[in-house]
Amino acid sequence: MTALEKKIEDLVRHIIEGLGYNVYDVIYQKQGKENHLIIFIDNEKGISLNDCELVNNSITDILDEKNYIKEQYYLEISSSGIERTLRKEEHYIANINKKVQVNLYKPIEGKKEVIGKLKEYNEKYLIIDEIKIDRENISLAKTIYDWEEK
Prior knowledge:
With 150 residues, the protein is an alpha+beta fold. Helix content is 27%, strand content 40%.
């Protein structure tokens, strides 16, 4: 998470939580020639389009007022989804003993993708099944929804 993403999350978290939602993640990225601020929300009941609209309308004014992002951008409010990207420490900890997929910059045992149960996590590495992966070697980590288990 970049410093800007953290600053924005800190700004909008209390508003979003006051509406009954959790902030799962905040991502500011360029998509083609356009900038996008994506705020992923969640709650126990799931997220509908109406929930996204409510959050959008509730945070737009404060984002404009604080003007942390100087260039033009698109604000997107989205559900965190069933399969979720793991970017924060709390994401990893919440998914201990759950199935995850990790894509790697450099292969381990000839593989650039590891799928299995997240057994251990700390600031330096994680262990999936029996494979130890240095955190700086992770290009993407996400949960895998087990459709057959549910």
